[in-house]
Specification:
- The complex is a heterotetramer, with 2 copies of chain A and 2 copies of chain B.
- Chain A is of the alpha/beta class.
- Chain A is built from 5 helices and 12 strands.
- In chain A, the strands form 2 sheets. Chain A has a 9-stranded mixed β-sheet with strand order 4-3-2-1-5-8-10-11-12, sandwiched between helices.
- In chain A, helix 2 links the parallel strand 1 and strand 2.
- Chain B has one domain: Glutaconate Coenzyme A-transferase (3-Layer(aba) Sandwich), CATH 3.40.1080.
- Chain B has 6 helices and 11 strands.
- The radius of gyration of chain B is 19 Å and the shape is globular.
- Chain B starts with 12 loop residues before the first helix and ends in a 22-residue tail after the last strand.
- The chains are: A alpha/beta, B alpha/beta.
- At the B-C interface, strand 5 of B face strand 5 of C.
């Protein structure tokens, strides 16, 4: 039985450490905020220019001047600070963010990531994804294990245009978790969703990875 | 109640753009999504009838609001942006070849604008190395790390929006409406600012000013602000009860 | 009255430096002249007995105060500065070859530090083109203009001084005591801040924070501040009279 | 009769225009602030990180946190703003300052400027001078016409290490004023101090310049 979006997010949340500064992408990554362990100090960065993102506002308390990188209304915390997008990406590119959780279209077994463009389809732009993978200390990707037609998304090499080369440290899908010790090492299978067999995983994955 | 006056203060958005706006110029437009956009100046830009604009803006507005209004009237020839997903008319014009588009990673775009305003011809960033973004650009490898050369950007005109401004052009932004506005204010040959409230010098604390007045040549108090929300997201209030 | 506490808060300057200070490291030290220097952390650095430091600081203090104290004890091997005119001991050590010195134009120094903190490997500036400063550096000519390649700077430790700080490390500087402190805070692998008053989160307005807490790993409230004036300059009061 | 320091400063002040943002160097340039015409709006920048410098404080009102680039105590004005030195030099390098008035050791007839270093003497550093001449729109130099030993300081080429190449737009000495139309043109003599003859000026100047 594949993990749900929430279960994937909860597994990504296991990457969090006390005192971390974290950037969460749009989609499943945003859900990770719901699984920050109680009592753990984690500061969420929004790349448009904010540290210390609070939860979504109560109805009637939305502030048009206070949005996250997904353009959603959010709230501030006592410790929040605002800054320009240039300063924000200085923070990101300069290696000051501990962890980024991002979605993906494809992940290569070499750690390459593709998540912004499908040739022939309308291109919306990369936003801040290329800066995040280039600058953040640790990059965790969350995605569905296969595309809708059943083809593998964790593959020997990405076929879609890249977002970054050799940038993924951990991959969490609805079927399994893969990780690597550092960016010179291959991925290793860490864990599988309940009911997923090693054989099934192999048939749904074209990337090579080490056994658990 | 009369507004503060001064040599930089203009009565209307139209008058603040007069003499600066010409066909085929490059315009930087502050804001992220619909947050912190110069809404009155965008309307005035549309109403000026100017054509062939190159617009530097992180996003392209929505169909009926922000830069989307200038797309609808086909006044924009080229966009330099990082993400334009919110706009159907944009998609149509782009696919039909009417609109030229240059994508920059968001941080690279922000830094190119800062560099342009700060007299930096170019800089080396890791962002985009090994991707389409780096194609055709100079790259250098230092200790195994690849760096891409990106160039500073300047504009003929920058339009920015702030929360408060004084007659000297000093600006204070509010919350995440700051975004691209401070760098764009530095990178316009002429920068026109609109503010929700225009005040006299001395009403803004010198330590709290985000954009010093030197960067702002013209300023208006916007007559009204829609401050439209693009993606209203809320959470449930906890059930009322005896606490 | 007890101080606010938190994981980043240290009781003393000495404890805030413990485990970070080692011989031969590079230290960035905020301030311009004696204005906005981390006076308590400099004393603690001296008292730590560390040797062979490379210090990045716009100036070198005066003989008895600021970085001059570390020069006197010969704990500094090399200075990267833009102007060191105020210090006799500096002069002596430099002329005798005990002290290494690298001059950077002030703006280039400021920008190199910002670049280091912002993940920019290098940048092109007009400053210094055709001068000694450009010798041995890559240069490129674009449309007749010469640009010099300058590289980002980072440090093992940055010591900065702010007016207010909260336990999360958010900092607000006061007047021209801001100077090099904000960039240096971003360019230290470890940044230690000292503040005149340490407060709880929420006491500093989020729009007014100059250095977001992410850049500050350790923070102390300085026990006392001399805030010495280097060049006291005054004007005559107008004669008293009936106004 | 040579012009006094104040007279030199007053002549440099004639460069000011309403609405100008101006950076004044240490020494005679600082005196220019005393000659801003009444009613003219001129904003003084201090490169350590301030726009809108006010006058020196009254005794007892000095603020150690408020100094200019010469480390002198100053005051603020209602329109003042503070910023980091990185932002300050962004302002300078980016061409946002209209006028810089600087001292010099030597000026070349080609507009080169030397004002920071004498080989064999103790070098104190260039401070912000190289950035100012590289970035400010118009550069006016004020200096004594000759060095103490009587040798010319306005000469065919600077012999001292340069601060910048082809950066001087106008030169005001105690004997004369030289200006040029643009940075492709030679300097032209504009005005001489009372009692200074064309012949005397020629003998004290090795640079070539156009007659008035």
């Amino acid at each position: 039985m594949a993990w749900s979006r929430d279960e994937i997010a909860a597994r990504a949340a296991a990457e969090l450490r006390d005192g971390y500064y974290v950037n969460l992408g749009i989609g499943i990554p945003t859900l990770v905020a719901n699984f920050i362990p109680a009592g753990m100090r984690v500061v969420l960065q929004s790349e448009n220019g904010m540290l210390g993102m609070g939860p979504f506002p109560f109805e009637g308390e939305e502030d048009p001047d206070l949005i996250n990188a997904g353009k959603q209304t959010i709230t501030e915390l006592p410790s929040s600070s605002y800054f320009s997008s240039a300063d924000s990406f200085g923070m990101i590119r300069g290696g000051h963010i501990d962890l980024s959780v991002l979605g993906a279209m494809e992940v290569g077994e070499n750690g390459d990531l593709a998540n912004w463009m499908v040739p022939g389809k309308v291109v919306k732009g990369m936003g801040g994804a290329m800066d995040l993978v280039a600058g953040v200390k640790r990059v965790v990707v969350v995605m569905e294990h296969c595309s809708r037609d059943g083809s593998a998304k964790f593959k020997p090499r990405c076929e879609l245009p890249l977002t970054g080369t050799n940038v993924v440290d951990k991959l969490i899908t609805d079927l399994a978790i893969f990780s690597r010790a550092d960016r010179h090492s291959p991925f290793q299978l860490l864990e599988m969703a309940p009911g997923v067999s090693l054989d099934e995983l192999r048939t749904r994955t074209t990337a090579r990875y080490l056994p658990p | 109640m009369s507004l503060p006056t001064g040599p930089k203060v203009y009565a209307t958005a139209a008058s603040a753009l007069a003499g600066v706006v010409r066909d085929n110029i490059t315009v930087m437009s502050g804001g992220f999504g619909l947050c912190g956009i110069a809404e009155n100046l965008i309307v005035a830009l549309r109403d000026s009838g100017v054509k062939g604009l190159t617009v530097v803006s992180n996003n392209a507005g929505v169909d009926e609001y922000g830069l989307g209004m200038l797309l609808k009237t086909r006044q924009i020839r080229k966009m330099i942006s990082s993400y334009v997903g919110e706009n159907k008319e944009f998609e149509r014009q782009y696919l039909s070849g009417e609109l030229e588009l240059e994508f920059n990673p968001q941080g690279t775009l922000a830094e190119r604008i800062r560099a342009g305003g700060a007299g930096i011809w170019g800089f080396y960033t890791r962002t985009g190395a090994g991707t389409l973004v780096a194609e055709g650009k100079e790259q250098r490898v230092v200790d195994g790390e690849t760096w891409v050369l990106e160039k500073g950007l300047v504009a003929d005109l920058s339009i920015v929006k702030a929360w408060r401004g004084d007659t000297e052009g000093n600006l204070i932004y509010r919350k995440t409406a700051r975004n691209f506005n401070p760098m764009m204010a530095t990178a316009g040959r002429v920068t026109v600012a609109e503010v929700e409230k225009l005040v006299e010098p001395g009403e803004l604390a010198p330590d709290q000013i985000h954009t010093p007045g030197i960067f702002v040549q013209r300023i208006i108090q916007g007559p009204a602000y829609r401050r439209q929300i693009e993606n209203r997201t809320i959470r449930k209030r906890p059930a009322a009860g005896v606490s």
